[in-house]
Specification:
heterodimer, A: mainly beta, seven-stranded mixed beta sheet, four-stranded antiparallel beta sheet, 11 strands, B: mainly beta, six-stranded mixed beta sheet, 12 strands, globular
Chain lengths: ~110, ~110
């Protein structure tokens, strides 16, 4: 009964490759998010979608492209991976106010 | 943009004792929401407690309670009877009343000493 799931949980890849991380939520939420957590544990918002529409697009390299095929899914595609992209990426969802965000288990991306 | 400050990068507490984690935030809004999240070594983010700014009463969840000082823009988390399982990274978060963006602090790493 996973509320927010991400695949894969671990991803090890070479510099220059393209990879995708998938996120699905079964909570019926309208809003989904992508966060990047660096080695110092700082959580940085990257994107947010509300009903498949992009509503938050923070300053991230355009190598990162989110895609929301429907409101239950928000995928993250990363082109030309760089060493600095190594981090844990979290997907989250929320619905209405004052509801909190529900987080996925995170995807640890390691770029070699 | 709102900023959330957690001035204690690391804290420690003896098992069964009480510890308070600090959080301050900067906002010009009168209505908003505040949260504390816990991130244990498993890295799963878990909601600990939530506070609506329009509520004067401090939120409480079992051993976890907050001290919400709206005028001072302070939102501290008190953990009573600390347990080994409380060891984790704790994040304070602010959510605007309108919109969907959450603002997170830099986290406080809590160690529980047996």
């Amino acid at each position: 009964d996973t509320a927010v799931s991400q695949t894969p949980k671990y991803l090890v890849t070479q510099m220059g490759n393209d990879k995708s991380i998938k996120c699905e939520q079964n909570l019926g939420h309208d809003t989904m998010y992508w966060y990047k957590q660096d080695s110092k544990k700082f959580l940085k918002i990257m994107f947010s979608y509300n009903n498949k529409e992009l509503i938050i697009n923070e300053t991230v390299p355009n190598r990162f492209s989110p895609k929301s095929p429907d409101k239950a899914h928000l995928n993250l595609h990363i082109n030309s991976l760089e060493l600095g992209d190594s981090a844990v990426y979290f997907c989250a969802s929320s619905q209405g106010r004052p509801n909190e965000q529900f987080f996925g288990p995170g995807t640890r991306l390691t770029v070699l | 943009a709102q900023t959330v400050t957690q001035s204690q990068p690391e804290m420690s507490v003896q098992e069964a004792e009480t510890v308070t984690l600090s959080c301050t935030y900067d906002t010009s809004e009168s209505d908003y929401y505040l949260f504390w999240y816990k991130q244990p070594p498993s890295r799963q983010m878990i909601l600990v407690i939530r506070q609506e700014a329009y509520k004067q009463q401090n939120a409480t969840e079992n051993r976890f309670s907050v001290n919400f000082q709206k005028a001072a823009k302070s939102f501290s988390l008190k953990i009573s009877d600390s347990q080994l399982g409380d060891a984790a990274m704790y994040f304070c978060a602010y959510r605007r009343y309108t919109g969907n963006q959450f603002y997170f602090g830099t986290g406080t790493s809590l160690t529980v000493i047996p």
